[in-house]
Design a protein that fits this description.
Layout lengths: L9 E4 L3 H12 L4 E4 L3 H5 L7 E2 L11 E4 L4 H9 L14 E4 L5 H13 L3 E4 L2 E2 L2 H6 L3 E5 L2 H11 L5 E6 L3 H29 L4 H9 L6 H12 L8 H18 L4 H15 L10 H8 L17
Parallel strand pairs: 1-2, 1-4, 2-3, 4-5, 5-6, 8-9
Antiparallel strand pairs: 7-8
């Protein structure tokens, strides 16, 4: 039921690991939330928290605000303008559609223009983090689109974003998120190289990374990836396949804007090699093991309990 603080009826499409974590924060805040997911069982886990699970995105058409967080461009168009999409009913459509999927500029433009033609405003709202970051309350969000729509939706986005940055009236947020993920790839490859340089010279990975994380070069990200580097735990939070997709979107943007990205281009080739070796479904922290092999090293988990920095 709507409240004075959250008067709008909200829908959420896509309750995978990330979507479910964010939807949980909205429910915990008291938001009136209906949810849909292709695999219904993944959405049903939210029922005990107060969500209503629907059988198709079309059933969310009468919600005021609808979020989408799905796999990719084709999925976004399917759950919005597909035969059972949230925008498929001419008699009812949400006033604001907020898409948090990483998609290409052409798909984003198509989505925005088709929605505008039927009176729905689209906000691009990519996020930085993973389910653990969501639970820790440290998720960051970048948003772009019509300012009036953002002002309406801001209080809802702030329930799962520690920091929400509005960057413009159009599609700017898409490029900002891609640029962010280019940084993830380049930094992780650099972190792998220098960590292995120290290890091959006799310094434990955990000792080097402890020093790095406490220095001016340390960051929330290097701390978060340290347990994976120390214990070689490549349980996926973001796979090499996904990183490759974003690197390629970034390189395409570099061509359109005539901005050379030489480090990104090299990292893309390294990630491609990683995928070619059959490691594309692991977390992209496995760039460490790929570079170890290239360095003639056999590395082992250190078996040390290391903080992610998110506690």
């Amino acid at each position: 039921m709507s409240t004075d603080k959250f008067p709008h009826r909200v829908g959420w499409i896509g309750t995978g690991r990330m979507g479910a974590a964010i939807a949980t924060r909205l429910l915990d805040a008291g938001v009136d939330l209906w949810v849909w997911n292709r695999t219904r069982s993944k959405a049903e886990a939210l029922e005990e928290k107060g969500a209503k699970v629907v059988d198709s995105p079309a059933e969310l058409a009468e919600r005021d605000i609808v979020f989408t967080m799905v796999g990719g461009p084709k999925d976004v168009l399917e759950v919005t303008f597909g035969s059972e999409g949230v925008m498929s009913n001419p008699a009812a459509r949400p006033s604001i559609l907020i898409d948090s999927t990483t998609i290409d500029p052409l798909t984003s433009q198509d989505l925005t223009e088709r929605a505008a033609a039927v009176g729905t405003s689209v906000l691009a709202s990519p996020v930085s983090g993973n389910p653990k970051v969501v639970k820790s309350g440290r998720l960051t969000v970048v948003v772009s689109g019509p300012r009036e729509a953002y002002d309406t939706a801001q209080s809802y986005i702030e329930q799962f974003g520690r920091k929400v940055t509005y960057v413009g009236p159009s599609d700017e947020a898409r490029l900002v998120k891609i640029a962010h993920n280019l940084m993830l790839g380049v930094v992780t490859q650099s972190m792998a190289e220098i960590t292995l340089l120290c290890e091959k010279a006799g310094v434990k990975r955990s000792d080097f990374l402890e020093f790095l994380n406490d220095s001016v070069m340390g960051s929330t990200f290097t701390k978060y990836k340290t347990p994976a580097f120390v214990n070689l735990d490549y349980t996926p939070t973001f796979t090499s396949h996904l990183l490759r997709k974003d690197l390629e979107l970034g390189l395409e943007a570099s061509r359109l804007n005539d901005v050379p990205l030489p480090l990104t281009a090299l990292t893309h080739q390294i990630v491609m090699e990683n995928i070619g070796l059959g490691q594309g479904d692991e977390d992209f922290a496995n760039l460490l093991s790929r570079h170890a092999a290239a360095s003639g090293m056999e590395i082992e988990p250190e078996g040390i309990d290391v903080s992610t920095g998110l506690e």
